[in-house]
Amino acid sequence: MLPTLPPRRVDSHKADYGRILLIGGSRGMAGSISLSGIACLRSGAGLVTVAVPESIQAIVSGYEPSMMTLGLGENDLGQIRIERNSPNEAAFGLLTEKATVVAIGPGLGQSADTDHLVADLYRRLPQPMVLDADALNSLARQPKVLDQPGGPRILTPHPGE
Questions:
Q1: Helix, strand, or coil (residue 72)
Q2: Alpha carbon distance 90, 62 (integer Å)
Q3: Which residues, in sequence order, are CB contacts of 71 under 8 Å at separation 6+?
Q4: Distance between the two ends of the chain, CA-based, in angstroms?
Q5: Where are the strands (E) in the chain, listed by range?
Q6: Which conformational region is residue 117 in: left (phi greater than 0), alpha (psi within -120 to 50 degrees), or beta?
Q7: CB neighbours (10 Å) of residue 12?
Q8: Which residues of 112-147 are buried (b: 16+ CB within 10 A; e: fewer)?
Q9: Is 30 exposed, middle or buried (0-12, 13-18, 19+ CB in 10 A)?
Q10: pLDDT digits (tens, 9 = 90+) for 44-99
Q11: Rounded-to-integer distance, Cα 123 and Cα 19, Å
Q12: Kind of pairing, strands 153-155 and 68-72?
């Protein structure tokens, strides 16, 4: 038998149950980040936002209408690339500040852009962060970053990572 979530107070608000920011996905890899968002909702998170490249935003939002999405800039490979002083940089910055927890990696892809993003968030964000999939591959390429966490970190490797 699976555990059940406790009943929610009748006077509660969805924001009372956490704000999760998931970061990942890339052109051709929208599934894993979408399924991660659905898992967050099913586990009881109040607000789930999935930040993905603009080219897959519609695909990800179509998986589950209860997830919010943010389309970010992307490089030629269809992977997240956040341009300085762009409108989506400001929106992304606000989401990272408000998040209760951040998860990064599913479908992220591997490139210099993703390495920069992973290292920056790993060092800068004080919230708990879960790193999975390509975020772990990124850290493996930059092992010095591991000694500089901005807050609690959970790494979820499997043998291929």
A1: strand
A2: 24
A3: 52, 53, 54, 57, 88
A4: 31
A5: 19-23, 47-53, 68-72, 101-104, 129-131, 153-155
A6: alpha
A7: 11
A8: ebbbebbbebbeebebebbbbbbbbbbbeeeeebee
A9: buried
A10: 999 999 999 999 999 999 999 999 999 999 999 999 999 888 888 999 999 999 99
A11: 20
A12: unpaired
In this structure, the chain runs to a length of: 161
Sequence letter at residue 64: E
pTM value > 0.85:
yes
Residue by residue, DSSP assigns 27-93 as TTB-HHHHHHHHHHHHTT-SEEEEEEEGGGHHHHHHH-TTSEEEEE-B-TTS-B---TT-HHHHHHH
Supply 80's token pair: 């997240």
Q: Are strands 129-131 and 101-104 parallel, antiparallel or unpaired?
A: parallel
Residue 146 pairs in a beta bridge with none
